[in-house]
């Protein structure tokens, strides 16, 4: 099970390196889910001495006022042999064998974060100590609770410290080590008071009673140690720290532990409790309990990490890939983004996404309706037929059939189809442009680069404008073709029709009577309707060929050609990503790497147990 504590130690160090201190953050936090033991106590409660007794070394800063101003994550690693040493996370690969230097570095690193203003910070310091005299254990030393601010500190420092302590111990995965001095009334203990607030049933609180040897004569702490004065789920543990005189004389910690054992063994009041008293027992008991808690939390940790990995990957996908540094990489990134946009655009046209069906609605609904609204019969009224045929005959009336009159009537009627044809081209053009904006909004990478988004949109719309112009030319040519060459069969039938329905002996002027003109109008209307039906089918084909097909085939071709000629500075200008997005991507990537590593190692540890 020792590998489980080592794993948690590793994850805590990685969290700190990535800025995950368990505070409110927009990023998923692993810190809050890792079991930890937080050491809580008031100033002068003997908290520092307890930690040093567990470690067996003098290494914590001492002095008056608030000495601990940042959380100290103390990770103890038992080694079988070799010289003991300490390592700081912020000074990798540097070993401290002189623990006086460790003490100084804690003070210096505190000042680097908080300055010399005696203010506090929630950013932890990570210290790992490797020694044959320790058990595998992780403790978080928190600033001592105080009631009065000292010179150089703000008036709200008292509340700030309490808030910091609460932020650690209120988490359900935190084990509370509440340090209380025996020579003070337990009812006034800062550690017990704040522990009771967050853990009223005492289910995750360990009570440690210090300064038992300094109690007034005739008094003892047996009731407290036996849980009669204040009951916790776990037994109270008493310790005897070194006195200030011992500290001043640099009394060896090994000797101090021996004296502690002798005190409990030889003091009648505590003799029956001696087997579970002392700093050595405290360290062993906390290590075993931490192992048990970590073991029970493994399934929950695995679930949390798996969920967080999924969330991080989704967020990174939304943010897109990081910007390349070289010109080739930038060009490739722009091209890939444009191809993604182009593919989404094609999917809209092909029906894989919504929007393309609107083009069919133009051909099947709007365009035929516009043709019907032309009302060819009104254009071929009796007055208009007489007028055009008479004008076409000129000074010499037609002999058999008014060919020129027919032509003028047909041409003047068919040419009116140009209006609906142009409207159909414009309607499809509007839909194609609408789909450009839709595809841009659905291209994730374009959301990240405003300049590129505008450039792609402009390039696509310019291409569509050119396609619209070509489509109008082609569509209007279809109408002009019908005007320029009439179907021969139509004219061949005219003499027969005249012979069947008329008398060739009639005078030329009789051929301008109402019946004759009505027959001409009906014949022209029949021909125009035939042409209109043909154009109703051919114009959509022309529009699809010139606009829709070209949009699918070459929407960004010119833009790609321009990109190939651009310098790195111009390419960089297109990829002008928000710096905040870049920073978030880096942070997410590092955190994802941590979570994936944690997932693999926790799974390995779970199997090995």
Automatic annotation (TrEMBL):
Residues 31-299 form the Dynamin-type G domain. It is found in: Cytoplasm, Cytoskeleton, Phragmoplast. It comes from the Eukaryota. Its main location: cytoplasm. Keywords: Cytoplasm, GTP-binding, Hydrolase, Microtubule, Motor protein, Nucleotide-binding. CDD domains: DLP_1. Signal peptide: none annotated. GO terms for cellular component: membrane; microtubule; phragmoplast. One of its GO terms (molecular function) is GTPase activity. Residues 517-609 form the GED domain. InterPro entries: Dynamin, Dynamin_GTPase, Dynamin_GTPase_CS, Dynamin_N, Dynamin_stalk, G_DYNAMIN_dom, GED, GED_dom. Belongs to the TRAFAC class dynamin-like GTPase superfamily. Dynamin/Fzo/YdjA family. This is Dynamin-related protein 5A.
